[in-house]
Amino acid sequence: MKFAGTIFSLFILAVPSLAFAQTASSTVAVSGSVDLVVESTSLVPPFYTGKAIFATQGTARIIALPNVMENGSALSANDLVFTWQRDGQTLSAESGAGKDAITVSGTVPIRDISVSVSVSDASGNVLATASKILSPADPKVLVYEDNPLYGILFNKAMSGNYYLGQRSELDLVAEPYFFNLASIDGQDSTYKWFVNGNYASPSGASNELILKQAGNNLSGTAAVTLDANNNDRIFQYASTNFNVNFGI
Fold it and tell me: Is residue 48 part of a domain?
């Protein structure tokens, strides 16, 4: 546009994720986002460096991490209202001011779980939303050698064929992964060992088995199978098998 030889330019500035709340004396600028973190409560062995996985019929804690700024200052979770939904249904009891975490459990039949949260201020203005799909994974059980000198050899699970050679015995220990158990060898867990198709009694704890050679100068193969079950959650079960070769 031209007015008396003077040129005027018009600029439009777009600011994403920015809201304005009107107060009695001023306008407050608010921007924000929220992240969801899933923490499964399932068991993993000591020194396990991976992440516990949400398993079939499992339980997990979901934490909302808001990043909400008001006039350049971060608001804490206690300053915000969290509204949680599971599969599209509002969880009224778990929602409210400062309620930045919920606990969810898998159901039967087994299916994905959709969890979402909206973060609002005290006036009900929605500042951020987030959602996450929880897809249950199958738990598993692995067997390790319990070495008399080095302890449990977590660096290599038993699989395929294991050569025992002339050693007189092999101590085995089962480790459940991603089961929701109170402890590895508690009332809520069952381990069943089989050697060459025959039931083998545990050696001490139910997740331990000692294989012994029948005599010297013999050779052969012992086919070992282990079934692990959660007695309280019938869809949490796993199995593994391997061969132990011994002799000359």
Answer: yes
